[in-house]
Amino acid sequence: MAAKVEAWGSRVGLILAMAGNAVGLGNFLRFPVQAVQNGGGAFIIPYLVCFLLMGIPLLLIEWSTGRFGGKFGNHSTPYILDTMAKGRVWKYIGVFGIFTNIAVAAYYCYIESWTMSYVYHSIVGTFDGMSQADVAGFFNSYVDISQSTTGIPYEAVIFYILCLLLNTWILSKGLGGIEKVAKIGMPLLILFGVILAVRGVTLGTSGASDIFPNANAWDGLNFLWTPQFDSLANPKVWLAAAGQIFFTLSVGMGTIHCYAAYLKEKDDVALNAVSAGFMNEFVEVVLGSLIVIPIAAGYLGLDWVIQNAGFGMAFQTMPYLFQQWGGVLAILAGVFWFGLLFFAGITSSLAMGTPWMGFMSDEFGWSKNKGAWSFGALALIMGLPTVIFYNQGVFDQYDYWAGTVSLVVFAFLETVLFSYIFGINRGWEEINKGADIKLPKFFKYVILIITPLLLGAVLVSSIPDWVNQIKNNDTNNKEWFADNYFAENFEGSGAVSGKVIEVKSDYVKFEFENERKKFDKVSNQVLVEKFNDTKEYKFDSSLNQEAIVKVGDVIKPGDAIAKGNFTNNTLYKFIGRMLLLSLFVFISIIVYVAYKKRVKEGRATL
């Protein structure tokens, strides 16, 4: 006997919960970085086009698909997809909709736990008086579990477990708990974001210093919002824009299907999908672009931002910048910023628990409590390796395979199912059933032709990178265990050699020619200039690791620079991939067991 089916308490709660699912850490951490790395204004037009031609169609597909499957008592993708087409394969394609959520939640909650920790450190004044290098070093110490920034042993692990416990406890309350968090978290997120955005817009040149005399917050805004139409012919920018759509809207994951499965048959999906999508875009494009980049440009200059834009800016740079505001304002800014990130994170991570809970309730009659705590246990088992071996690359493997590849594969397959197997006419009718708005018929043909083509292009173009990841082509130290350590690429192309300028038994420093980007205000273009860069390697004498080069040596990437006993990161990356594969197989087996149970009960779809 299946557990009693839940329902959303209100339309506002549903839209806020769905928007909270989409509005996540990527809105504030990934979007500004992607925009900067892909030319600022050059990124915005492809991004908005991808939102209209891929993002909105995928939202419509997933909302209507979820509601359709919910009519048959299915609340997760294996059997939602199974209701839409004949054949046994679709339930196993639907495994992606559970697998992705558990795997992503496993490492996503680790980032979420950073925000909890940084709220604490902002309140107690940990960053007061720290230099920029000190703040960056603090983060590096935090993610190294052998160190502690508070005196608590294994601090990063403790905060991670606390974060998972909080998520699990809220999930155990069911949709009502998620809805309450969304109703509190989303307004606070927007309030905190608006306060910080206003500061970013009004900062102007007041943050300029002797070290960064040309710092100007408006330079950051102009860079992001001055259109550069030459990007329309750049495939790299289009791929980056399409990739950001997956991150920002949480499409291709299965969470939207699950949320929508709790709708009534005549409940609107068209307006709800569009409302949630545009709320996400407001948070990302408006708030996301008005905080990190303008504030960083206002103190450090636009050139510094272009050269250093990365995921770590939120934790390695922003606390230092907030200290420039002094006293109480610095504390409040830290609480607002990391509080904003926390609410963005938890409203998304809560959504990730619902597909597993819905499936176990539908198929095995599990209670909300049992479903939630089993999800927490799975996330903990999968997530601890990302915490313990963060610096060894396990976190990045999860993010790449579960948080990127899996989304693209599933989104492409579900679009093909919806348009060509379920049928675009039935699908369009399902989208518009009970709709409070009349969607332009244009979107019917976008869903049928343009969206699958875009997704297919992203999928095919990504395959060479999949091969490179599996072959570990990003490193010259491919063996798990080795007697020698080889120099990695000194810069992106791998064609530049480095000259040894300093060497000790456990330390080597190289100098090499590199390139960096600078923004030219006259031409409004990002220019590239050459400069002399350095790179350091440190070795562990306790493992008999010893440098074998001398000052003046010219070393090519792939040349041996040290001898000893080395355990390379490729071992940990392989373990990460095997853990993900094991999780996928485990969920597939459970889906098979559920299928045999359905056959026995006469409920199976053939």
Relevant terms:
single chain, Amino acid/polyamine transporter I, 2 domains, 24 helices
Strand order of the largest sheet: 4-3-2-6
Strand content: 5-15%
Nearest-integer average pLDDT: 91
Structure classification:
alpha+beta
What is the terminal-to-terminal distance? 22 Å
Helix percent band: 55-70%
- Enumerate the spans where pLDDT stays under 50 for 5 or more consecutive residues: none
Shape: globular
- Into how many domains do the coordinates divide? 2
CATH topology-level fold name of the largest domain: Amino acid/polyamine transporter I
Please write the CATH class name of the largest domain: Mainly Alpha
Identify the CATH architecture of the largest domain: Up-down Bundle
- What is the strand tally? 7
Helices, by number, come to 24
Oligomer kind: single chain
Subcellular location: Membrane
InterPro entries: Na/ntran_symport, SNS_sf
Membrane topology: Multi-pass membrane protein
Protein name: SNF family Na+-dependent transporter
Please provide a brief summary of the model.
By secondary structure, this protein is α+β, with helices and mostly antiparallel strands. The protein contains 24 helices and seven strands. It folds into two domains: 438 residues, Amino acid/polyamine transporter I (Up-down Bundle); 87 residues, no CATH class.
